[in-house]
Amino acid sequence: MQASDEFSEGQLNPANAPIPGVDKPTGGLIANLPPASFSFVMATGIVSTGLELYGAALPSLVLFIIAVLAGIVLAAATLMRLIGTFGLVMRDIRSPGRAFGFFTIVAAANVLGARFEMYGWITMALAMAILGAVVWVVLNYTLPTELLVAERKTPMIAEINGSWFLWVVGTQSVAVAAAMVARLGGSALLGAAAVGLWGVGVMLYLLVATLVTIRLLTHPVDPASLSPTYWIYMGATAISVLAGSRILLLDATMPIMETATPVVAGISFILWALGLWWIPLLILFGIWRHVLRHRPLRYEISLWSIVFPLGMYATASMLFGGVEGLDFMVGLGRIIIWVALLAWLASSLAMAHAAFSWLRRRRDLRGARPGPSSP
After folding, report:
1. Topology at the third CATH level for domain 12-353
2. Residue 294, by phi and psi: left (phi above 0), alpha (psi -120 to 50) or beta?
3. What is the pLDDT of residues 199-221, one digit of tens each?
4. Which of 32, 56, 144, 334 could form a disulfide with 51 if both were Cys (CB 3.0 to 4.6 A apart)?
């Protein structure tokens, strides 16, 4: 297992963007923080949720604590990056291959909010829902506008990748949060908003899937470009099913539910089937990338784009299957959640190995520097 270049000094450029009050190496890491860094929180939080639904309370709690702590650290780092290196943030916003990674902030907030609600911590759940909604509104209109008006030398389609599905994931996570708050407060307006957001998310999935597929068909595909982010093809369907499940749990007397229930239930099941169809193909993509084309196995932030879809698919299967009385879906979800946990453990070990390798190289570089000369 090789260490990722993301932990390599060659990728850090703190001289161009110093963080006031922070040492140079740490400042470099913050300055180059990937937009999709909150994917770790998303993945950890949703696996925790799935384990809770399974009944594995202790591992679920451990992962929940890890997700919360990681969220706090990443939130602080993101704020420091936004304040200290605003130019780099804008560069990411104008990059088609990186911009939609910022939607991991929205999804992470709403995944944590759902976990807080499961523990009965309603105030924290509401705070996360508000945070997710505010960030979603900002990103939902800022990113597409910046990408469309930015000057570029090549067509944008060449830079589109699987991370664009995070637009769908972020939107559906807001639908989940709206349904959660509507259920807690009995708000018919929020119930209607949840249904509307779910519909927008489904339409965005069709739009993004079309764009990503056109890119794959019209531009050369190599092992570097066929990254794990394409697993969000499946993850976006899974969170749409989860959002549909949350909507189906709303009070049936809400005005929107008479119209929405059969539509949401039917489309959610179709999306669940589509997600299941994607899994073997995505596995084949990985075999082609690493076995046939010999792409080295190493840590990359996009590994969490495998963990999150697996955890989300398992969670959505258990919840939707339980709501609709489809035992085979519940059974499949109870199997896949353990696959998701194994993927989480493997990705965490790879991340730790990459981090320790980077620290070791830094120590060796410091040791190799000559000390001050004697008088």
Report:
1. Glycosyltransferase (1.50.10)
2. left
3. 999 999 999 999 999 999 998 88
4. 56
